[in-house]
Design brief:
Elements lengths: L23 H15 L11 H8 L3 H14 L2 E4 L3 E4 L2 H4 L10 H5 L9 H8 L27 H19 L9 H15 L8 E4 L1 H13 L5 E5 L4 H8 L4 E5 L1 E2 L2 E2 L9 E6 L13 H14 L2 E5 L24 E6 L11 E4 L5 H12 L4 H12 L2 H27 L4 E3 L7 E6 L5 H10 L5 E2 L12 E5 L5 H20 L1
């Protein structure tokens, strides 16, 4: 063969993505660049002729010429008169390519494990129930999923359009680190009416959901080695928040009145995290006497109470109960709220209500965390609340969730019988199905997931072993046919788990 047609680089070394959306010449350019950088096309390799390239890859010669021209401009290949196109040897001379004796995959792998911070190593060891991936659409009985099929999307779109059209540039600029002032006022008015909270708008701090609110509390109030009391079982991600800053976690038990108040011998606790209106995940409501006892303990111990009020608007047996913060006379309660359950999770807006003396410190921490919440989303939510839409939506969802809860209970009686026993279902968006003693809830969860049903094992939310396992079953976000079919599948899974 003549020098003009001889080639030392077979076309098969180039992996062209036929499914990409980019123009063909760009996809070929990317494929050739990747082959060069990975070492599959060695420095000095003679590329095939444009005619051979085009024929083998099923593209036009213009596509090949365009790709090679772009690579020449970037310096990956060079053209030699009457000889053809070659991979630029200077790339190897300047140490920009992997060593030839090393396999391409090994060249791209780190030589050793990355060095992580102590916080990252702690988080890696925790069974964080929030998970690392999200499946869409949500699987029944995934927790934390509101009825997105019943949300007033057209109304929200109209509010968003009006805000963007009238105030888009203004709201897209930098704003108040504590949040959009009208939204903070709307939140203060809403929690006063709906939850019995007592605060001024200046005490409200808008956050990126409840999780960032919890993280800010840890940053501001907790030092390494501090003792933090948490409910057991309880919200698993909060363990990561406090363990990640070096705190030591103290599990606090529960009874029918809620979390057990630490004894005076546990006065060294720096903070106690509680979900008094509806304990997560058991559903127990903290009694009035226990609330007052907890407040007295915090004042005596010079400790903080972190109240997570995550879905308390949805109570079916009575009117929603007032929050713990509304009883606080000594400024010991820090209140966390979220719109992930009452509006939609993707909004990623929540809030903190902190005692007035703590506002400057939390303002500094909020600025460091991510500077400010998104402006337009805050403005739309402000309109949604102040115009009364949130209150009406919550009222409608309360009725819908009660219907879906009743459907779940009926289906469980039909398909599960006495193999599962429900705890308190008077409020909230999920129910805990307690299993018979000896049944492994993690194994049941794994078997159910293989059937497309997501029931979180209660053991994932505990620090100390429980005498029996349980399954968390979120029902709010799923219509009746989905709930019934999912319970039927779960019944088969429980029968299988029993036989093995």
């Amino acid at each position: 063969m003549s020098p003009r047609t001889a080639s030392s680089a077979p076309v098969t070394l180039v992996r062209l993505d036929a499914r990409g959306d980019a123009p063909a010449y760009r996809r070929l350019c990317d494929a050739l660049r990747e082959a060069i950088v990975s070492g599959r096309l060695a420095p000095g390799a003679h590329l095939p002729s444009t005619r051979l390239f085009a024929g083998e890859l099923g593209v036009s010669r213009n596509t090949v010429n365009g790709a090679l021209a772009h690579l020449r401009s970037e310096g990956y290949v060079v053209a030699r008169a009457r000889a053809g196109t070659f991979v630029n040897e200077r790339l190897d001379a300047e140490g920009l390519l992997p060593p030839r004796h090393r396999a391409p995959s090994a060249a791209r792998s780190p030589a050793r494990e990355p060095r992580l911070s102590a916080r990252a190593r702690v988080l890696a060891r925790l069974p964080l129930a929030a998970g690392r991936s999200v499946v869409q659409p949500a699987r029944p009985f995934q927790t934390g999923v509101p009825a997105l099929d019943a949300f007033p999307w057209k109304l929200w779109a109209r509010l968003a359009s009006a805000r963007t059209r009238r105030f888009g540039p203004l709201l897209s600029a930098y704003g108040d680190v504590l949040g959009y002032a009208p939204l903070r006022s709307a939140i203060a008015a809403y929690v006063a009416a709906a939850r019995g909270a007592r605060c001024e708008a200046e005490q409200v701090i808008v956050t990126a959901g409840a999780q960032q609110a919890l993280d800010l509390v840890a940053r501001v109030l907790v030092d390494p080695g501090d003792l933090i009391g948490i409910e057991d079982p309880g919200y698993a991600p909060v363990r990561g928040v406090f363990a990640g800053v070096g705190a030591r976690l103290v599990p606090l038990g529960l009874d029918l009145d809620g979390v057990l108040v630490p004894e005076r011998t546990r006065a060294a606790l720096r903070l106690v995290y509680v979900t008094p209106s509806r304990q997560f995940p058991t559903g127990v409501t903290m009694s009035a006497a226990r609330r007052l006892q907890l407040l007295r303990w915090a004042d005596h111990a010079d400790a903080w109470i972190l109240e997570d009020d995550y879905d308390s608007e949805f109570r079916y047996a009575s009117r929603p109960l007032g929050c713990l913060q509304g009883l606080d006379e000594q400024g010991r309660v820090i209140y966390v709220g979220t719109f992930s359950k009452t509006v939609f999770p993707g909004l990623r807006l929540g809030y903190l209500i902190v005692p007035a003396p703590l506002v400057p410190a939390f303002s500094d921490a909020r600025a460091v965390a991510d500077r400010q919440p998104p402006g337009i989303e805050q403005a739309v939510l402000s309109d949604f609340i102040s115009q009364g839409h949130l209150t009406r939506h919550v009222r409608r969802m309360r009725g819908l969730y009660q219907e879906r809860r009743d459907i779940l209970l009926e289906a469980v009686r039909e398909h599960l019988g006495d193999r599962a026993e429900f705890g308190d279902t008077a409020a909230g968006m999920l129910a805990v199905a307690w299993l018979r003693p000896g049944v492994d809830d993690q194994r049941v969860s794994d078997l159910a997931l293989a059937e497309g049903v997501e029931v979180s094992p209660l053991s994932r939310y505990t620090i100390r072993p429980l005498p029996r396992g349980g399954l968390l079953m979120g029902y709010a976000g799923f219509p009746a046919p989905v709930l019934r079919e999912a319970v039927r599948k779960l019944g088969k899974v429980l029968s299988s788990a029993k036989r093995r």
